[in-house]
């Protein structure tokens, strides 16, 4: 069923993002992160890692000799894997309505890139190359430690042996590595990333999505840091089971704010930035920290439109059809004269972009906003997003690690109402009130 | 102990209660990311689009609320040397001219300091060729001494047709060439470029300049080299530069056809078109046909009246929620009279400061700018576009294209049933207003006379009031202490001195600008030169 999102969709021909670079240059890191971001903003994206195809084809990895360019048999297998991945890309675009495919492999020879370009041309796909160039030994070593030792290829190896083998693997590629050439390849669209973002060369950005990708890639970094997410302390309206509004903290909410201050101090965070919304309850929470904070209107809770300050019971009584429709598609459902989760995601995009730029940040926000941010960091799809659990008085600490995010949850031991409403079994508009209100949490 | 919070009456922002002092107006939408101040330094040969980029960037930054100003050294030079005679002025061995040009650069830098330190500016764009390492070193020193961040924007282009086109578009009509015909002007300007070429040292990302923060714009945006972005504002600047283009195109702005709510004088809502509104939509379809545009994109909001208008065009259109009318919150669907009656204080506050005023549980114009920014970014990428939106939104968009300040924005006239046709030209935008001859109500409310103005909304330290890109400083007296800079006596040989038209000795050099020392020197220079002139003829 076709639907219109709140922002025009800007992808007409599907786009292939083709990674380029020696091993351990962050290609898979970038592929996964970019895929996560694009999916979150609503562009269906999938990453195709040729190494995984190779692991499927050659069940056991012996050593770097597999990657020796003179190993003809291995070369055949590797070519076949690349071809298989390309076929899957075509299937993704055609049958799964994908819009962007990230082709994650070294793609270090002009020959291999020519194959991809002609494939794409034949099928009518746009191609955008992302090349990662780095010769800083510390960075490469750190990459290898973070992601290679844990890979299936090295799972039973001794670390020193693994490092040695991997270095020789890189050498196998080095001899035939032809970086994208600024002269010969001047008609191609690409971005070259040097030394993890210290410099970029951008050539021929063709369209909106490529422009967004470039902007995103230029804002991400790999400096270790943590992001703390928390909701405001329990509010007066929370207590009475009402949604939205702009009420202040309840006494327990105030206690939480103080506990949060103690917790944050205990974490000993270097140069922490604190962000709140424009709503009283988040600001009151931040005030207890006694540090500077910045207010973002974009962090305001979802606008419930005509349902602002109503309880779920009241919504069921006055707008039972709306209530059911929301349960049918909570991500896309827009409150009359209000917003949807989908709208929220677009509203939050500049916040995410700035979070990527920053280092240590504490974000004090609201339930729906929290869910959107969490879905971005933990790569949760749209149908799960509106049901993520984000209880009051609990801080989540997110630390990027390897290809993902470590999550630590800290409940600060101050009781609060539960505001989480699960999807009821019956979402039909003709259901009876008891069925509709089955999952409403308790309140005054 | 937690501080008490009060909600600021105009912006509806919760702030710790201050004792009596009115809370300073602060950034509503999003945090401010521009401390310390930044100096953007343009680099490049003449006719590479430096001033074009400077002005456009400044307009954009001011619109998003970052006080920015351009300092064009060429303008300082035109003040100092009232009459430009020929490209000889730019010859690298023209010692006197070199000195004057140096003084101009220093004067501009002094004004930059004053703007960033004393006038609440946050970004200064230093628009000059800055083609030598020495000159850039001077600027880096200057930045370091004053605690300013430096970001270079270099424009590199060797396509002769692009350069010729630039020269025709903005140089032949500039004050330097007011007495020349086009061909002569073109020729002189090209020779002027040659004067710079020999000493041009482009930014070198591999060695010499690898620790500097800069973007090289190559061939009008075909390629970019970005080095060491330091912060949020530099990242936004880079993103903006990568989205703008110079292809000729036209942007059409109009409001939806008259709606049934308009007829009743109601704010907001989501009503459909009135019969006259439908007439307008039909007329709009005819208008669009007549314009005979290649590939017109049509954008609407997600409100009924805007979409209904587009429907009449019979072409595909895209809906943007970001183009929805300003949310009047609790005042949605009221008439102004009802609002005045039900919320008299709010009504008065809105007139007091319409740009910052946020409707209770609604939005302000300032919020709108934030909301609409991605639309602007996309408009920059596009070519021919027709945007069918709403009154407040249209005012925001128009303020961006026409460089209008926050003060003016909420009062820009955007009547129903009128299409504004915007065509980029030279450094600005040509506007043509076309009424489609279908009657409609007037929804415009002028700023009431008797309203007492709030504390000056213009320049405030760390404010986010969009300003019209400020006028250049040239009119104000600047340097009183030029005596500090030593100026050597000129050698009497005048082999490479520029020619000045003898009938117009620059006695009009203002006494303010040049101390007596320099005036004497310049007069001596002119004496020598006029000798030369008479010798030659």
UniProtKB/TrEMBL annotation, chain A:
GO molecular function, one term: 6-phosphofructo-2-kinase activity
Annotated keywords: ATP-binding, Hydrolase, Kinase, Multifunctional enzyme, Nucleotide-binding, Phosphoprotein, Transferase
GO cellular component terms, A-Z: 6-phosphofructo-2-kinase/fructose-2,6-biphosphatase complex
One BP annotation, GO: fructose 2,6-bisphosphate metabolic process
Superkingdom, taxonomy of origin: Eukaryota
Amino-acid positions noted as binding substrate in the UniProt annotation, renumbered to this chain: 231-238, 281
Domain 6-phosphofructo-2-kinase: 5-224
Function: Synthesis and degradation of fructose 2,6-bisphosphate.
Quaternary context: Homodimer.
Family: In the C-terminal section; belongs to the phosphoglycerate mutase family.
Annotated PANTHER family: 6-PHOSPHOFRUCTO-2-KINASE/FRUCTOSE-2,6-BISPHOSPHATASE, 6-PHOSPHOFRUCTO-2-KINASE_FRUCTOSE-2,6-BISPHOSPHATASE 1
Name of the molecule in the record: 6-phosphofructo-2-kinase/fructose-2, 6-bisphosphatase 1 isoform X2
Species this protein is from: Cottoperca gobio (Frogmouth)
Source organism phylogeny: Eukaryota, Metazoa, Chordata, Craniata, Vertebrata
UniProtKB/TrEMBL annotation, chain B:
Region (Disordered): 1-31
Pfam families: 6PF2K (PF01591), His_Phos_1 (PF00300)
The keyword Cytoplasm is assigned to this record: no
GO cellular component, one term: cytosol
GO BP terms in the entry: fructose 2,6-bisphosphate metabolic process; fructose metabolic process
GO MF annotation list: 6-phosphofructo-2-kinase activity; ATP binding; fructose-2,6-bisphosphate 2-phosphatase activity
Record-annotated active site: 256, 325
Composition skew (Polar residues), residue ranges: 1-10
Protein family per UniProt: In the C-terminal section; belongs to the phosphoglycerate mutase family.
Protein name: 6-phosphofructo-2-kinase/fructose-2, 6-bisphosphatase 3 isoform X3
Species for this entry: Cottoperca gobio
Lineage per the UniProt record: Eukaryota, Metazoa, Chordata, Craniata, Vertebrata
């Amino acid at each position: 069923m076709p639907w219109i999102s709140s922002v025009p969709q800007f992808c007409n021909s599907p786009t292939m993002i083709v990674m380029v670079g020696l091993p351990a240059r962050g290609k898979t890191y970038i592929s996964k992160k970019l895929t996560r971001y694009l999916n979150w903003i609503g562009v269906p994206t999938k990453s195709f890692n040729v190494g995984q195809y190779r692991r499927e084809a050659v069940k056991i990895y012996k050593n770097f000799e597999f990657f020796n360019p003179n190993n003809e048999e291995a070369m055949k297998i590797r070519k076949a894997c690349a071809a298989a991945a390309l076929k899957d890309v075509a299937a993704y675009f055609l049958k799964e309505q994908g819009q962007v495919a990230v082709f994650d492999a070294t793609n270090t020879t002009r020959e291999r890139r020519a194959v991809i370009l002609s494939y794409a041309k034949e099928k009518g796909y746009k191609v955008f190359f992302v090349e990662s160039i780095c010769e800083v030994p510390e960075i490469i070593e750190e990459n290898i430690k973070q992601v290679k030792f844990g890979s299936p290829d090295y799972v039973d190896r001794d670390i020193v042996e693994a490092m040695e083998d991997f270095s020789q693997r890189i050498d196998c590629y080095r001899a035939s590595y032809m970086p994208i050439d600024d002269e010969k390849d001047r008609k191609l669209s690409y971005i070259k990333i040097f030394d993890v973002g210290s410099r970029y060369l951008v050539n021929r950005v063709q369209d909106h999505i490529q422009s967004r990708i470039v902007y995103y890639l230029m804002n991400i970094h790999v400096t270790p840091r943590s992001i703390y997410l928390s909701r405001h302390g329990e509010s007066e309206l929370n207590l009475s089971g009402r949604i939205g509004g702009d009420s202040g903290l309840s006494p327990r909410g105030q206690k939480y704010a103080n506990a949060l201050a103690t917790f944050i101090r205990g974490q000993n965070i270097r140069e922490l930035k604190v962000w709140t919304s424009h709503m009283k309850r988040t600001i009151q929470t931040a005030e207890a920290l006694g540090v500077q904070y910045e207010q973002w209107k974009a962090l305001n809770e979802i606008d419930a439109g005509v349902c602002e300050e109503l309880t779920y019971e009241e919504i069921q009584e006055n707008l039972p059809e709306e209530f059911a429709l929301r349960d049918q598609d909570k991500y896309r459902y827009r409150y009359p004269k209000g917003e949807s989760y989908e709208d929220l995601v677009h509203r939050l995009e500049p916040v995410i972009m700035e979070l990527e730029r920053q280092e240590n940040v504490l974000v004090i926000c609201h339930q729906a906003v929290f869910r959107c941010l969490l879905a971005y960091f933990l790569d949760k799809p749209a149908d799960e997003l509106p049901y993520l659990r984000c209880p009051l008085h609990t801080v989540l600490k997110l630390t990027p690690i390897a290809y993902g995010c470590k999550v630590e949850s800290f409940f600060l031991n101050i009781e609060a109402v539960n505001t989480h409403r699960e999807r009821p079994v019956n979402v039909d508009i003709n259901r009876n009130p008891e069925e509709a209100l089955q999952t409403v949490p308790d309140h005054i | 102990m937690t501080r008490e919070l009060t909600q600021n009456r105009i912006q509806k922002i919760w702030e710790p209660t201050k004792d009596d002092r009115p809370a300073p107006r602060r950034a509503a939408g999003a945090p401010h990311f521009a401390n310390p101040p930044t100096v953007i330094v343009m680099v490049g040969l003449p006719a590479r689009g430096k001033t074009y980029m400077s002005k456009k960037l400044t307009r954009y930054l001011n619109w998003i609320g970052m006080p920015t100003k351009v300092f064009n050294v060429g303008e300082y030079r035109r003040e100092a040397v009232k009459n430009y005679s020929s490209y000889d002025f730019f010859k690298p061995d023209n010692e006197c001219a070199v000195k004057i040009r140096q003084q101009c650069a220093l004067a501009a830098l002094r004004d930059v300091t004053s703007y960033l330190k004393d006038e609440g500016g946050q970004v200064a764009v230093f628009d000059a060729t800055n083609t030598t390492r020495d000159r850039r070193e001077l600027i880096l020193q200057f930045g370091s001494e004053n605690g300013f961040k430096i970001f270079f924007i270099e424009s590199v282009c060797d396509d002769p047709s692009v350069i010729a086109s630039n020269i025709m578009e903005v140089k032949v009509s500039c004050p330097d060439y007011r007495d020349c015909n086009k061909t002569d002007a073109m020729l002189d300007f090209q020779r002027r470029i040659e004067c710079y070429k020999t000493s041009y040292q482009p930014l070198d990302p591999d060695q010499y300049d690898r620790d500097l923060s800069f973007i090289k714009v190559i061939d009008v945006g075909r390629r970019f080299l970005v080095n060491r972005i330091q912060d949020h504002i530099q990242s936004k600047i880079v993103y903006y530069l990568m989205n703008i283009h110079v292809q000729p195109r036209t942007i059409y702005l109009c409001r939806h056809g008259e709606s049934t709510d308009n007829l009743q004088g109601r704010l907001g809502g989501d009503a459909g078109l009135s019969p006259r509104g439908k007439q307008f939509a039909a007329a709009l379809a005819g208008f669009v046909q007549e314009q005979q545009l290649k590939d017109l994109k049509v954008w609407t909001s997600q409100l009924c009246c805007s979409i209904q208008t587009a429907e009449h065009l019979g072409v595909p259109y895209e809906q943007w929620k970001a183009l929805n009318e300003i949310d009047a919150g609790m005042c949605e669907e009221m008439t102004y009279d009802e609002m005045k009656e039900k919320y008299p204080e709010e009504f008065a506050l809105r007139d007091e400061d319409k740009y910052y005023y946020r409707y209770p549980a609604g939005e302000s114009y300032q919020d709108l700018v934030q909301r609409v920014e991605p639309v602007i970014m996309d408009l920059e990428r596009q070519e021919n576009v027709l945007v069918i939106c709403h009154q407040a939104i249209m005012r925001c968009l128009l303020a961006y294209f026409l460089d209008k300040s926050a003060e003016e924005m909420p009062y820009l006239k955007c009547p129903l049933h009128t299409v504004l046709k915007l065509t980029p030209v030279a450094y600005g935008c040509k506007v043509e207003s076309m009424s489609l001859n279908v009657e409609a109500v007037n929804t415009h409310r002028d700023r009431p006379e008797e309203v007492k103005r709030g504390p000056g909304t213009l320049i405030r330290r760390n404010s986010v009031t969009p300003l019209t890109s400020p006028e250049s400083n040239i009119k104000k007296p600047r340097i009183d202490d030029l005596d500090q800079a030593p100026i050597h006596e000129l050698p009497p040989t005048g082999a490479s001195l520029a020619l000045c038209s003898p009938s117009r000795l620059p006695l009009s050099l203002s006494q303010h600008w040049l101390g007596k020392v320099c005036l004497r020197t310049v007069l001596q220079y002119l004496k020598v030169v006029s000798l030369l002139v008479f010798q030659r003829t």
